[in-house]
Each structure stands twice: as C-alpha cells, then as structure tokens.
Specification:
Blueprint lengths: L1 H26 L5 H20 L1 H14 L6 H27 L5 H4 L1 H6 L4 H13 L2 H23 L13 H15 L5 H12 L9 H26 L3 H4 L2 H30 L3 H22 L5 H7 L8
Helix pairs in contact: 2-3, 3-4, 7-8, 7-9, 8-9, 9-10, 10-11, 11-13, 13-14
Amino acid sequence: MMKKFKQGSFLVTLLTLLAVAVLARTSGVTTNPRQDEARNAQYRSFVEKVKTDPAAAYQIGKDFISKYPTPDDQFLQYIKKYVAGYEDRQQRIQCGQVLKDNKAEAFTVCKAVLARTPDDLSVLASLANTGLSLTGNDRKTYSGDAVSYARKAIQLINAGKTFEEGKPLPNKELTLASLNYIVGALSLETDPAEAAKALVAVARSDSDYKKVPQVYALLSDAYRRAEYDKLREELVNKCGTAEQQETPECKTLTAKVNDVTDRMIDALARAVAYAATSTDASAKTSSAKWKESLTNIYKFRKGSEDGLDAYIAGVTAKPLPQ
C-alpha cells in the first residue's frame, strides 16, 4: 500500500512539474534563474543610464526589448514607452533641423514624425511651405506631397485645429491664405481647376495675401489652363463659319469664352495694379510682362486698348468676379 502511494505521489509531482514547464513556455515566465538575473541587471543598467545618458539608455532599452520580449511586465512596458518616446523626440529634432533649412530632405525625414502623429499641424504646414520654396527637379518631385500636406492643414484648421492645443491661431485668415496660395501655385500644372479654386480663396481672404500681385497672375493662368484653352479650341473647331456662329451651341460657347476671358483680364489687371504699390522686387520685374499679356487679351476681347488704363486703376475697388 505504501509503495503504491509513493508511486502515485511521484506521478502527481511529475505532472505538476510538466504543467509548470508548459505554463512557463506559454506565458513567457522564465524558469531560468540566470536569465532572470541577467534581465534584472540589464534593467538596472537601463534605469541608471536614463538619469545620466539618455542615448545609452535608448540603446540598452532596444537591446532589452530584443532579448527579453517576455514577460510583458511593467519593466518591459516602461522600456518600450521610453524607447518610443526617445525615437519620437529624435525624429522631431531631425525634422525640425531640415525644415529650418527648407530642404527637400525634409519630405523624407519628417515622414517618420507624421507616421506617429499624422495631424501634426506644424509639420504639415512647414512641409507645405518647404515645397513652395524648392526649385527645379526638387520642386517637381515634391510639389504633389506639399499640396497634399497643405490641403490637410487647411482641413484641420477649418475643423478647429491649432498649432498649440488650447491656444487659438494668431492669424487664422493669414494662415489659411498662405496654405491656399501654396495649393494654387504648386497645382497649377497638374490641376489648374483646383489651383484656380485655391487662388480665388486667397483673393477673397481677409488677409494681406489678397494684395499680393502673384496671386492674380497665377489665377489668370489657372483660368486659361482650366477653361479658356479647351473652350477656345472647341469654339474654333465647331464655330468657324458665320452660319455656325448663329447656332445656339456656338452662342453658348462664345458666351463661355467671353466669360473666362473677362475673368483673365480682371485677374491680370489686379496683378498689374497691386504690383504698382508692391515692395516685392520680383513683382516689379514681372509687372511689364503681365501688362503686355493683359493688353493683348484686352484688345482681343474689346477690339482696342481704349479704357485699359482706367480699368486697371479701378479694378481693385471691385469685387472679384464669380
């Protein structure tokens, strides 16, 4: 009887040990005292470096996460949080440095920041502005991204987002106008209708941007690309004879061409008018070219230059055409 009892007791003990081993494997709890000791030592080293050397603590923390992914206790969770926070800070520092210099590199470096915080208004607006400052191939490469960031920033601002939580934007109208200008300037070639819409928003804003001559020069070009060129071609192809010109279709086409031509004239006249009082050297330089284009379009529409100077003088007092 005693022998049977001992055999049963041994069997229970064996099953218990096996259960502990299985539980350890499935729950991540180590049963290796040496591993526990090494893990605890590395954690103590991490905590010490947090106080004195954050960069070293980050490296120790990454190594800890790799070596000891389990158990997912308070120590591992603390290290994961520290590592994530450190990476975020470093990425923001790098992003800020390249944005300060308005470099194309910012579009690569700052993506890591937006991956963590996609609604970061400061980064979105800064990238949009950087896109506008680029030239040549860099501008072509990143203009689409810059427009997307500007559009998102506009949406966030209209939804109540600010640069600092709890603090209103210092000049909401000016900020929105500048972002719309970026959309207009950078999408002129790829989406002139969208560019025109954005530039009209700038022109109708309650900000100093409405007096920037380049806004209106771009707007006239956007009208041409989005509407005039296609309508003019259609008019020439369908309404070449006097008989065709009397048809309802051709009269409608003629009215559309005249409408967009009038809006192009209005926009260019505003560019010339605002350039006359602008302190921007580039506007002064471009003014003669704008005046020449305006004169040609005005003569085509009106038949002569009569009244053009008076038109320019009074155009800024009129509302922007619909």
